[in-house]
Amino acid sequence: MWQFFHKLGSPKWFYGIATRFMPWLLASGLLLLAGGLAWGLAFAPADYLQGNSYRIIFIHVPTAFLAQSMYIMMAVAAVVTLVWRMKLADVFVKAVAPVGLVFTFLSLFTGAVWGKPTWGTWWVWDARLTSMLILLFLYGGVIALDRAINDEKSAARAVAVLVLVGVVNIPIIKYSVNWWNTLHQPATFKLTEKPSMPVEMWVPLLLSVLGLYLLFGWLACLRMKTEILVREQKTRWVKDLVMAGRG
Amino acid sequence: MHPIRKKRLTIVLFLVAGIAIAVALTTYALRQNINLFYDPTEIAAGKAPQDVRIRAGGMVEEGSVQRDPESLNVQFRVTDYSASVPVQYEGILPDLFAEGQGVVAMGRLNAEGMFVADQVLAKHDENYMPPEVAESLERAEKRKADAEKAAQSASY
Amino acid sequence: MAFDSFSAFIAMEGHGPYVWSCYAVFFILVAGMMIWSARRNRAVIEGCKRRFDQQQGTSGRDARPKASATFTRVEVSQD
């Protein structure tokens, strides 16, 4: 197990694995996402209360879900950076933070556009919406802090601490709708119960969540590869790789 | 595990635990401010301040909506099934506003206990279903109610 | 199909602008991020290549006479 862990720490090893997996991630991700969205947009039935505006759920939920799970992954990577000083963990945080920023923004934007026809307002300062806005600022802060510190090692540690400090926001986002009175409704999907949604609605939703997850995997691999190249550009294996044209 | 890593791991865990406790205490202390609205029970118990802009939330009571035919004036009662508050509003209501639906109203509580709203937002629940399913659910409920009524009258 | 016609699909019973603007922004941002990341990856690889080429160009001239002296260059794995 430890051997695998150390192997994972080798940027060269990761680069090879990522290159092998990426086409599969891209193809399956695009396929699932396109399938899920087309199904949700055109074939899923309308909602009895909200009519067709609820079709925004097929992008609102996947982006919100990914923005949060991405942050949890970043927090795990931050622990690895701080405790084991593994370079690849820091590469992950750096590569993924901008993706998280975009997904958080998308979930807020789609939520606002969905809120106008259903709730009657674009924005309300309730606990769910506000904590999601804090997540947006956390992603922005991670990116800014990383840019602000020139030294690679101190940047990695500072960013890891910020990520860990921000991780308390994740349970707040998740449970805000249960702990406080909010305009946002409670979760439709719970671990222990059946979803409060019929099959012909949750299957396309599940497909688009999986598809976006796979696309995120592709994006993370690609961006990590770029970051590895920048950091290891003086090493022998990068030279061999680049000269052989197997970028 | 290497002792130095063990030490670092404990520091990291303490850091996260400390922040979690700090945030938990802060949010607990501020819980009344984090709550978006007062529910009718709280308002009936006098917990909501008068003449201060607050929000009230709950369900629109069945059969309580009175629309003024000449203006956009509406009156209805917001209930949480244990207490209810009368609400007065002038303006356009959101599409989802209906009896038996959730609502969050923003406005002031006047001295007579009437909530004068200047904004009404619709609140929906986490259930999604196609219209046909909703209709058949409603029919089934009605049938059940009818059957109950029949059983009741039979027993007399 | 949940809609009777294509125009009904576009209109979405009046919710069309909301739904379609969400999907449009989603596609623009996700596709933009993917393309931008791929381009940056290419640019970094090109940059590395150019630098290695340059290095080889300068070091190659000095190294040539020596290279004939060493016959066999055995590639030893670095890991």
From TrEMBL, chain A:
The keyword Metal-binding does not apply. The keyword Cell inner membrane applies. Keywords: Cell inner membrane, Cell membrane, Cytochrome c-type biogenesis, Membrane, Transmembrane, Transmembrane helix, Transport. The chain crosses the membrane at residues 21-44, 56-84, 91-115, 127-146, 158-181, 201-222. It comes from the Bacteria. Its main location: membrane. It is found in: Cell inner membrane; Membrane. GO terms for cellular component: plasma membrane. Residues 18-184 form the Cytochrome c assembly protein domain. It is a multi-pass membrane protein. One of its GO terms (molecular function) is heme binding. One of its GO terms (biological process) is cytochrome complex assembly. InterPro entries: Cyt_c_assembly, Cyt_c_biogenesis_CcmC, Cyt_c_biogenesis_CcsA/CcmC. It holds the Pfam family Cytochrom_C_asm. Signal peptide: none annotated. Required for the export of heme to the periplasm for the biogenesis of c-type cytochromes. Belongs to the CcmC/CycZ/HelC family. This is Heme exporter protein C. It comes from Marinobacter persicus. The lineage of its organism: Bacteria, Pseudomonadati, Pseudomonadota, Gammaproteobacteria, Pseudomonadales.
From TrEMBL, chain B:
The keyword Glycoprotein does not apply. Gene3D superfamilies: Nucleic acid-binding proteins (2.40.50.140). Its main location: membrane. It is found in: Cell inner membrane; Cell membrane. One of its GO terms (cellular component) is plasma membrane. One of its GO terms (biological process) is cytochrome complex assembly. Residues 1-8 are cytoplasmic. It is a single-pass type II membrane protein. Residues 136-149 have a biased composition (Basic and acidic residues). Keywords: Cell inner membrane, Cell membrane, Cytochrome c-type biogenesis, Heme, Iron, Membrane, Metal-binding, Signal-anchor, Transmembrane, Transmembrane helix. Heme chaperone required for the biogenesis of c-type cytochromes. Transiently binds heme delivered by CcmC and transfers the heme to apo-cytochromes in a process facilitated by CcmF and CcmH. NCBIfam families: PRK13165.1 (NF009638), PRK13254.1-1 (NF009727), PRK13254.1-3 (NF009729), PRK13254.1-5 (NF009731). This is Cytochrome c-type biogenesis protein CcmE. It comes from Marinobacter persicus. The gene is ccmE.
Automatic annotation (TrEMBL), chain C:
It is found in: Cell inner membrane. GO terms for biological process: cytochrome c biosynthetic process; cytochrome complex assembly; heme transport. InterPro entries: Haem_export_protD_CcmD, Heme_exporter_D. The keyword Zinc-finger does not apply. GO terms for cellular component: plasma membrane. NCBIfam families: cytochro_ccmD. Belongs to the CcmD/CycX/HelD family. This is Heme exporter protein D. It comes from Marinobacter persicus.
